[in-house]
Design brief:
Chain lengths: 261, 280, 218
């Protein structure tokens, strides 16, 4: 069974239909890239999957080691409670285009804050906090920032900030990690270090969904590519097919803009 | 109102003529004194010469019926205002009224932003010490104001001890309350505030000037639910000038003459205070 | 004489400080609650709060003092009694309401100036709304509002002199009393020294606080 199953997801903002029925599934350990023109619904899709926006209809389910969890079912016809939404979110991590690090905390504190808050009121809190500390340091080492633990965000470059954000998103061990155009806000010479971290995560079999405009990167790292435009999936398949030999005219047109196809 | 004004104008003209005709001798003397003064002392020493030199007498007042208040045309009238106009005319200067913060009257005088305080001012020791005051021209009393519905319970001094009072800070009313040994009183900024406290029930009673009580409370006023009962200390009103000023003597002379001629009584009758005026 | 004056002014200034401290104690939490009210998506609530803010910011504090103290009694429901404690209570009610309105607008501006991404970053990490407010937003808001709050608080120190209109005796009343009682004018002017000294202290305090929060950028 696929780890993540998204079925016929819709999102309307008043009269405006932004998502018109998105369905896809993702196997554990796979990387999915989502490409497409701006305003096509990519970011809205990520925001719906993380419940920053509430989907209007459709179904989101996760099948992990603990069994099958329906996170959202539009046909159930009842609103999710805040606590339920928080539980749902723990299955996912999200890396934002604009990093959104907490400016008043160091790199290490940014990573450890959420796990520390979850350890509150637990019996073995002290031991947990020690473990959280160790894990956070380990995560920052993995993204190459073992020497910047006590730096504040404004003391770090954009690429370094985004790497802290990735470590922060990994701290709660999500089933799926989402990236929303993770390099769009970076100077070109800084994108490499962030993409390398994502490549490394792919090698380590992290399950990931990456919204990106970096076509070369998408080709190299993805197991599957979605081309989304106008709120629907126009084309989907392995990267060689979608990026190398697209069957749809709209995909070809879009890729021409990137000097490919 | 216009008629009253016209009458007043006429009165003051008659008065001025009288002053010129009837008492030409003293007037000449005063002029001589003024002329001699610079020779003896420094010119700045004579306040009279200073006022005559600039051609106007600036009188510090508050809006305090029936002594100083505005008519329908915005003109200052009242017993004090009219007397001040007459006095200025006798000095051959124009008069100018300025509303002052009553608390700052000494400051106003000393800084020469006004030349006289002429506003139903009670001659207390403090006032006598810090200003050159005229002889008393009017007598007044401090009266206790309460709500009309309870007035019959508070007709004697001994009944006052159970009341919470509001009095104008530093006023004769405050002294009166203190002298009676009443402990439950609050000093408030003005007599108008004191009345407002009684009306709002935040004080049971206040002590204000009889003259003001006559004008501001009872039927036909905005405080028709209030009335006055016990009369406390009697007191005198005087005009205040700068410490050491020769204007006080000039006023006393002017007032004695005007009183003798009946002018003072005429003006007082216009404002209903004829019972209160006094001459030494 | 100097000693008598200073003793009396000290006594008055203690009252000024009481008003100052109690106003902050009441107006900061109330202002925070009001700022949430004015940001509420429930229109009647935000409309109500914004109307209250308009009234209290739009009219002079002195009128508010007079109205709050005198109006109930004149309408037949004297809630303040006849003692000095009632006067003080009325003064505090006026000051706390007035300053809560000013503070609520500063808080609202501060909260709304925090990028939405901060809240969302907390949300996707599974934090509760309360955790996000206290652990993520609050310190950033504080950093942003220190300068405008410094301004308001210094104004508050000077505004305490207004309570004299309903006969709460603070330092300026006591200073002015010497004009009437002893013909002394300098005590009134001397009260300025008290305001200057205290505001100097506050200026240093706010400078220190700004420096303390300088370790991060928002």
């Amino acid at each position: 069974m696929a780890l993540l199953e998204v079925t016929d997801l819709h999102k309307n903002f008043d009269q405006l239909q932004v998502l018109k029925g998105i369905s896809f599934s993702l196997e554990k350990g796979q990387t999915l890239s989502i490409i497409g023109p701006s305003g096509g619904g990519k970011t809205t899709l990520l925001r719906c999957l993380n419940f920053l926006e509430m989907p209007s209809a459709g179904r989101i389910a996760i099948n992990d080691d603990g069994g099958s969890h329906v996170l959202f079912d539009g046909s159930a016809g009842r609103e999710l409670k805040a606590a339920q939404i928080r539980e749902n979110r723990l299955h996912f991590g999200l890396v934002f285009q604009s990093f959104n690090l907490f400016p008043q905390y160091t790199a290490l504190q940014n990573v450890s804050l959420a796990p520390r808050l979850r350890a509150k009121g637990k019996e073995d809190r002290k031991a947990q906090l020690r473990a959280i500390e160790e894990k956070s340091v380990e995560l920052l080492r993995r993204v190459g920032l073992g020497d910047k633990l006590d730096y504040y965000p404004h003391q770090l470059s954009g690429g370094q900030q985004q790497r802290v954000a990735i470590a922060r998103a990994l701290a709660l061990t999500p089933d799926v990690l989402f990236f929303d155009e993770p390099t769009s806000a970076l100077d070109p010479e800084l994108t490499g270090e962030v993409l390398n971290v994502i490549r490394q995560l792919a090698r380590e079999n992290m399950t990931m969904v990456v919204v990106t405009h970096e076509m070369g990167f998408a080709q190299a790292v993805s197991d599957q590519v979605l081309f989304i435009d106008g709120g629907v999936i126009v084309e989907q398949g392995p990267p060689e097919q979608v990026l190398g030999a697209p069957t749809e005219e709209r995909t070809r047109q879009f890729l021409r803009g990137f000097g490919k196809g | 109102m216009k008629k009253i004004l016209a009458l007043l104008l006429a009165l003051s003209m008659v008065f001025a003529l009288c002053a010129c005709g009837g008492s030409s001798e003293p007037a000449a003397d005063t002029a001589d004194d003024a002329a001699e003064a610079p020779a003896d002392d420094a010119a700045a020493e004579s306040d009279l010469a200073y006022v005559q030199g600039k051609g106007s007498l600036i009188v510090g007042i508050t809006d305090f019926a029936p002594m100083d208040y505005k008519d329908a045309n915005g003109e200052w009238i009242g017993f004090d205002a009219d007397m001040a106009k007459a006095f200025a005319e006798s000095l051959g200067v124009s008069v100018e009224f300025i509303e002052i913060d009553w608390d700052n009257k000494i400051l106003e005088l000393d800084s020469k932003s006004i030349d006289a305080v002429w506003n139903g001012m009670t001659l207390t020791d403090e006032v006598l010490n810090s200003m050159e005051c005229s002889n008393p021209y009017c007598k007044n009393a401090q009266v206790v104001v309460v709500k009309a519905e309870v007035a019959d319970q508070y007709q004697g001094v001994e009944s006052l001890s159970e009341l919470a009072f509001a009095v104008e800070a530093g006023s004769a009313g405050e002294s009166a309350v203190k002298d009676l040994g009443l402990e439950d009183y609050t000093a408030v900024p003005t007599q108008a505030d004191a009345l407002m406290n009684v009306a709002a029930g935040t004080a049971d009673a206040c002590v204000i000037d009889l003259l003001m009580a006559g004008a501001m409370i009872g039927e036909g006023t905005s405080y028709d639910q209030l009335t006055y009962t016990v009369s406390l200390t009697e007191e005198n009103y005087g005009v205040g000038f700068r410490k050491g000023s020769d204007l006080a003597a000039a006023f006393n002379e002017f007032y004695a003459a005007a009183f003798a001629e009946g002018t003072v009584e005429e003006i007082a009758t216009v404002y209903g205070v004829q019972e209160s005026i006094v001459a030494e | 004489m100097f000693q008598t004056v200073v003793m009396s002014l000290n006594e008055g200034f203690v009252k000024s400080l009481e008003i100052f401290a109690l106003t902050l104690l009441g107006a900061i939490p109330l202002g925070l609650i009001m700022s949430f009210g004015s940001m509420s998506s429930f229109k009647p609530l935000s409309g109500f709060v914004r109307t209250v803010v308009w009234i209290f910011r739009g009219s002079p504090l002195m009128i508010q003092l007079l109205l709050i103290y005198y109006a109930p009694g004149m309408l037949g429901y004297n809630i303040w009694g006849t003692g000095s404690s009632g006067r003080f209570a009325a003064a505090m009610a006026a000051f706390i309401l007035n300053y809560a309105c000013y503070f609520s607008e500063i808080f609202r501006g501060g909260i709304e100036s925090i990028p939405r991404g901060q809240k969302e970053a907390g949300q996707v990490l599974g934090m509760t709304g309360t955790q996000i407010f206290f652990k993520v937003t609050l310190l950033q808001v504080i950093k942003r509002i220190v300068p405008p709050m410094g301004n308001e608080i210094i104004t508050l120190v000077k505004d305490t002199s207004l309570v004299r209109v309903i006969s709460v005796y603070e330092v300026m009343w006591n200073g002015q009393a010497f004009i009437k009682s002893s013909g002394l004018i300098w005590p009134l002017f001397f009260t300025a020294v008290y305001y200057l000294a205290f505001n100097g202290l506050l200026t240093i305090l706010f400078g220190w606080l700004e420096k303390k929060l300088d370790y991060f950028k928002v």
